[in-house]
Specification:
Blueprint lengths: L5 E7 L3 E8 L2 E9 L9 E10 L4 E5 L6 E4 L17 H4 L5 E8 L8 E3 L4 E2 L3 E4 L5 E3 L5 H14 L5 E4 L8 H23 L5 E4 L4 H8 L7 E4 L2 H14 L7 E3 L6 H4 L2 H7 L4 E3 L5 E6 L4 E6 L9 H23 L3 E6 L6 H15 L6 E3 L7 E6 L5 H6 L15 H17 L5 E6 L1 H8 L4 H10 L2 E6 L8 E7 L1 H15 L1
Parallel strand pairs: 1-14, 11-12, 14-15, 18-19, 22-23
Antiparallel strand pairs: 1-2, 2-3, 4-5, 4-7, 4-13, 5-6, 7-8, 9-10, 10-12, 16-17, 17-18, 19-21, 20-21, 22-24
Helix pairs in contact: 8-9
Length: about 500
């Protein structure tokens, strides 16, 4: 279902630039760029091949970043007249130490370096110029009649031995508009080649626009009712850019000056916080849960508190339909990429399955990122893939919990204390001292000493050592601190003195 009111909101401070796309007062997409870390997607580097990996049909390319970039064989430009694509091998195209011009298609993620391609593309307002292609494509989001018109215009102006993609923003654009955009991109490509020819790798040759201006270029069209920004400097840059590219859109840009922060004013901050939750509630009372694994994202649909009014089939259908729209919203909002498996509630009626499939695919038309969906299986599962460009909002705003290492689970209290008792036992029997004084967290001390000191007496019998325990909130529940070790009399004296001072 297409949104009736579309807005872009941009806020900037000394730490971050954040861009929100809002549809019918709901946060649909959020993009965050830290001042000290910019996305490098779209950047063009002159790199040097560091390693060629025949077993992986790929190569590592040094572009001057902390980690080498990864280049798949399918992303390598090669002379078609010299090689048979069917028997294409990475070692036949690239050699270690070879200089190569590459463009970043995916930011570094975790332990992985950036993904790069040799098929360079340069984005303008209306067009994408592909210097190493020879075709003309048109955005899939455009109406069919407009696709046909723009395809014809694209073929008219296509440079020799270069390719073009006509973007969504080109809707209703004329031939002169496209020509103007193309001339800019051709000049840019000429500058990039000249800089690459006089540079030595690794070298950054071309850098993408900063987030705010990039979003205006790529997203801001007449479909949006307004763009609100609270940064005067970026406001001026955007207005200057639109003066050259889309002067008719300048009237929709507003500089926000209120004392209340922009994202608080329009309830964006709270929606960002909610987007980080594992469980997302639906209007009816059902909910979806989103879990991430190394291989895929799993999304589960549940009826939750919703009990329906007519029949079980209708209850399940309504929950699934609400979930379909919310799932697409969450995928866009969290910028989820890779393999996604959705477990809708099982439906017996084939008409209900068809309606769910139509609703889900219609909702996906709002997503600018390319995805591929497999039809709903007999088990109610939908498998899909979505282009993975960045770590998404979870990667930017979250890091793995140091306690659970990202699993979402931690050891139970009893498990922690049992393991701690085993550590104490191992320590006592592996040291020659006859007596020990340990400092423990009060909860751990209560568990280990046990009722009427029975647990402590048992530990003393098993270790054949004299053991004293004092309590301290300064110690973690799963750790112990040795205060003293040695002869029984001296250790006991320290224990008595410390106990008196604590009382």
């Amino acid at each position: 279902m297409k949104a009736e009111i579309n807005e872009i909101m941009i806020t900037a401070d000394e730490d971050e630039v954040r861009v929100a796309i809002v549809e019918d007062a709901k946060l649909a997409e959020i993009y965050i760029e830290r001042i000290n870390f910019h996305s490098i997607v779209g950047n063009i580097y002159l790199g040097r091949v560091k390693d060629v990996l025949p077993g992986m049909e790929a190569a590592f390319v040094d572009v001057g970043l902390r980690k080498s970039s990864f280049l798949y064989v399918d992303e390598v430009l090669f002379p078609e007249e010299e090689l048979d694509p069917a028997s294409l091998k990475i070692q036949h195209i690239l050699k270690q130490g070879q200089d190569i011009l590459v463009q970043v298609v995916r930011d570094p993620m975790g332990t992985k370096g950036a993904r790069v391609t040799t098929f360079i593309s340069l984005a303008g307002k209306y067009l994408v110029l592909m210097p190493y292609s020879d075709s003309v494509g048109v955005s899939r989001r455009l109406p069919e009649k407009e696709k046909t018109r723009l395809k014809e215009l694209g073929q008219k102006i296509k440079p020799r031995n270069m390719g073009l993609i006509v973007r969504t923003a080109a809707e209703d654009a004329g031939l002169d508009d496209l020509k103007k955009d193309l001339n800019y991109l051709k000049r840019l490509w000429k500058e990039i080649r000249a800089k690459a020819n006089r540079s030595k790798p690794p070298k950054l040759i071309h850098s993408e626009e900063e987030l705010a201006l990039k979003m205006v270029r790529d997203v801001f069209t007449s479909d949006f009712q307004r763009l609100i920004i609270d940064c005067p400097t970026r406001y001026k840059k955007i207005m200057n850019y639109l003066k050259k590219s889309n002067p008719e859109l300048r009237s929709k840009v507003r500089l926000y000056k209120d004392s209340m922060s922009l994202f608080d004013k329009f309830d964006i901050n709270s929606q960002i916080e909610n987007s980080l939750n594992r469980k997302v509630w639906l209007r009816s009372g059902g909910y979806i849960s989103i879990d991430s694994t190394e291989a895929l994202i799993a999304i589960d649909v549940n009826t939750g508190k919703y009990i329906g009014k007519t029949s079980l089939g209708e209850t399940i259908l309504k929950t699934n339909l609400e979930a379909a729209e919310e799932i697409v919203r969450q995928i866009r909002l969290r910028d989820i990429g890779g393999i996604i498996v959705i477990d809708f509630i099982d439906m017996m009626d084939s008409r209900h399955k068809k309606r769910l499939s139509q609703t889900f695919n219609e909702a996906l038309t709002q997503d600018r990122t390319k995805s591929k969906v497999v039809e709903i299986s007999k088990l109610g599962l939908v498998e899909m893939t979505r282009k993975n460009v960045s770590e998404g909002i979870m990667g930017v705003l979250h890091e793995n919990c140091p306690c659970c290492n990202g699993t979402g689970k931690i050891s139970s209290e009893e498990t922690i204390f049992i393991n701690l008792k085993r550590k104490l036992y191992a320590y006592c029997v592996s040291h020659s001292e006859r007596a020990f004084l340990f400092k423990l967290h009060p909860d751990a001390a209560a568990f280990i000493t046990g009722k009427n000191q029975e647990g402590l007496r048992s530990l003393r019998r098993r270790t054949k050592k004299t053991i004293y325990i004092i309590k301290s909130l300064d110690i973690s529940r799963d750790e112990f601190e040795l205060v003293a070790g040695g002869h029984r009399i001296s250790v006991k004296k320290i224990f008595v003195d410390m106990s008196k001072s604590m009382n």
